Amino acid sequence: MFYSHQNNDFWDRPIVFSPKRIVRVLTICVLVTLSLFTVLWIAPGRRPSRTLAPLRDKAADSTSHSSSQDNSLKELQYPSTESTNLKEPSYSSSKSSDLEEYPHSRESSDLKEASYPEEKSVSKEKTKSSHNLASLADSGTQATFTKTPYPPLPPGDDEEYISICMAVKNQHVDLLEWFPHYYYHHGIRRFYVMDDGSQPPISILPDYGIPRSAITFVYIPRTPIEERPEPMHHHIYGDMCIKDYGKRHTWMGFLDADEFLEMRNGQTLMQWLHDWEHNDTVGAVAAQWLTHNSAGLLTRPEGGARKNFDKCVVNDPNGENKHVKMFVRTELFQQVNNVHHIGTKDGYMEVGEHGDPTGPWRNPVTHEKWALHHYGIKSRQEFIEKQDRGNANALAKPIPQSLWEGVENMDEVDCKELTDYYP
């Protein structure tokens, strides 16, 4: 036997350890251990927990859903650039982006005049892959710059004095460069994206490099030719952008995803248009095209259009640069003559940068105050994609091969004004 030290204190009384007692204690310990093991491990294996099973199912569904999203977005990923690092911000819901199905008539639209409604799901006619991606449209990201912006950025147009309306189809990748250009370099805070049946919808991508609250998406389901208003651009610009949103802004520009504005007169876009607003005879101001060629590229380059397509065609009275695009005072809008010419009310005129009256073409061609860089053909690959997209006007002729040949065969000059823009 083993004894502890003896004294008169209760706690120091001898503890007797016998073999039988030791065996009993060890047996009890083993039984308790086996019981705990049975309760905590074996039983749940035979009968799944009511609490954990739904969580496991939800996790499996989430993994499957994430994989589906990754596969569906694979073709829309933009080539690597050094533009931005992105993080998740928080936005106020007071001016969240609109996401509407627009059924080709203003009367049946449920768009609100006084506020920007919360996002709603798009048309039921979306493809299965689009449905899987729809949840991504609720998020948005804002850029934090990895280097000093160039040129210095103007103040943001927080009052939405100027807005831009565009008709677009299947140009998700192009917009990843286009939105930051106008948001940061020209301070635009309101974009109306009239999505002409893109698959998946333009709104499906969660991040275009700017706050999502600055973009109003309107989805136009593809319908039979006989049901589409013609010309479709006239309907989009006049019956949708101007009539439904025009009163919210003083100016509205009508641009495409391959057009990038450059200010050359030392003024910001807002200052430039403020000056024209004070002219009692002017209803619209035209920016002249500066058309870029392919720069010899056959496939879509990394880094975007501005950095890579650095050759422009020379100014020619009969060449591509004679075309203009317009910013219009919304209260003076009268009609859409064509995509290059927005007519204004009687007593007002549409002018070029020197105050000279202009229509869709302007001669002599000048780019002294501002220039609208037009990346109309880009690489050979991108031009073929443009032909496949077709024209918004269903009855219009297909985009001809002669457009490519006409631009490529013109004399060229260096055109590097936008190559160093960041972001």
From TrEMBL:
A Gene Ontology term for the protein's cellular component: cytoplasm
Positions with biased composition (Low complexity): 62-71, 86-96
Stretches the record annotates as Disordered: 53-147
Cellular localisation: Membrane
Topology of the protein relative to the lipid bilayer: Single-pass membrane protein
UniProt keyword annotations, A-Z: Membrane, Transmembrane, Transmembrane helix
Keyword Transmembrane helix assigned: yes
Ranges of Polar residues composition bias in the record: 138-147
Keyword NAD recorded: no
Basic and acidic residues bias locations: 97-128
Domain of life of the native organism: Eukaryota
Sequence intervals crossing the membrane: 21-43
A GO MF term: glycosyltransferase activity
PANTHER family: GLYCOSYLTRANSFERASE FAMILY 92 PROTEIN (PTHR21461)
Protein name in the entry: Glycosyltransferase family 92 protein
